[in-house]
């Protein structure tokens, strides 16, 4: 009988405050969708870092004849065979170096033609204008500064270039987008909490007569508060359910059927990462409104 009464009170409360309940559901859905999306974005960035950092190299570009007039580091002329052998020997002795590959000017010209063959500049270049280089694979890509410190400015070395710098800008952009999503999520979460508190407050005020009667007949505080808490929890759970639908839809339509077909160089996260976040979203959607309603009732419902 008591359970039936609580359920009937929950239904009455949801019908009386239908508009505010709908607003709570929408705001909770959007905030939790952004929360889940930010968690997935963070995991995607971490996956991309592991993938790209494992592939980036440090390149030691050597001076050629043309660099003598254009680069201050090559003022003494083109690199000599002795200098190349010395650099190769030192690189192979470094414990942080996994492998060393030497690229001749002819190989550099061939690779340039393959990548930028449609460029007008490609037709004006000759192999002797391309730089020889050492392509160095590191065991730990984060220690690229060791190579830079050891070889930058040495005779015969025009430049030491770390490819990690090229992808760091991308990761910084993605991290910035993630922080922006977290900021919007926090704002939406605050709005959702305010709506929950106001909904509970209005619901408690509209049923003050019933709660007064319940107090007179000896009902406990928890028994009186339970319908209000359950109303907020149900609204939050519905919002979390919609948030899960948005996350699943985003993975299926946006990632799997659009981005994955257009961007081949990124290893996107799979369904396992998405499904792992859904229980957390549902738990937050259920517990957050319930606790908000509980603390709101302590102030607005004097029992």
From TrEMBL:
Topological relation to the membrane, as annotated: Multi-pass membrane protein
TM stretches of this protein: 21-41, 179-200, 232-254, 274-297
Family annotation (InterPro entries): ABC3_permease_C, FtsX, FtsX_actino, FtsX_ECD
Complexes and interactors: Forms a membrane-associated complex with FtsE.
Native source organism of the sequence: Streptomyces milbemycinicus
Keyword Isomerase: no
ABC3 transporter permease C-terminal domain location: 184-300
Keywords: Cell cycle, Cell division, Cell membrane, Membrane, Transmembrane, Transmembrane helix
Positions of the FtsX extracellular domain: 56-160
Major location (coarse): membrane
One Pfam short name: FtsX
UniProt protein name: Cell division protein FtsX
Highest rank taxon of the organism: Bacteria
Summary of the function given for this chain in its UniProt record: Part of the ABC transporter FtsEX involved in cellular division.
Family: Belongs to the ABC-4 integral membrane protein family. FtsX subfamily.
Lineage: Bacteria, Bacillati, Actinomycetota, Actinomycetes, Kitasatosporales
Compartments in which it is found: Cell membrane
């Amino acid at each position: 009988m008591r359970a039936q009464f609580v359920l009937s009170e929950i239904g009455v409360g949801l019908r009386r405050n239908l508009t505010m309940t709908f607003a709570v559901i929408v705001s909770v859905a959007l905030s939790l969708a952004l929360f889940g999306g930010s968690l997935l974005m963070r995991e995607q960035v971490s996956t991309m870092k592991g993938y790209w950092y494992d592939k980036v190299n440090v390149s030691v570009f050597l001076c050629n004849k043309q660099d003598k007039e254009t680069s201050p580091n090559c003022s003494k002329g083109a690199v000599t065979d002795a200098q190349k052998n010395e650099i190769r020997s030192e690189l192979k002795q470094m414990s942080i170096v996994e492998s060393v590959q030497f690229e001749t000017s002819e190989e550099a010209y061939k690779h340039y033609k393959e990548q930028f063959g449609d460029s007008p500049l490609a037709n004006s270049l000759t192999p002797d204008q391309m730089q020889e280089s050492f392509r160095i694979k590191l065991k730990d890509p984060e220690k690229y500064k060791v190579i830079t410190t050891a070889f930058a400015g040495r005779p015969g070395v025009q430049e030491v270039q770390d490819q990690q710098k090229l992808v760091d800008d991308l990761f910084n952009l993605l991290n910035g987008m993630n922080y922006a999503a977290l900021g919007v999520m926090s704002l939406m979460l605050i709005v959702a909490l305010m709506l929950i508190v106001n909904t509970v407050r209005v619901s408690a005020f509209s049923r003050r007569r019933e709660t007064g009667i319940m107090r007179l007949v000896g009902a406990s505080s928890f028994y009186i508060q339970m319908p209000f808490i359950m109303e907020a929890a149900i609204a939050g759970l519905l919002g979390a359910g919609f948030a899960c639908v948005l996350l699943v839809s985003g993975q299926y339509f946006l990632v799997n059927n659009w981005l994955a077909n257009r961007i081949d160089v990124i290893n996107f996260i799979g369904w396992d990462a998405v499904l792992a976040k859904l229980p957390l979203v549902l738990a937050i959607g259920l517990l957050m409104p319930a606790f908000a309603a509980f603390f709101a009732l302590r102030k607005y419902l004097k029992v």
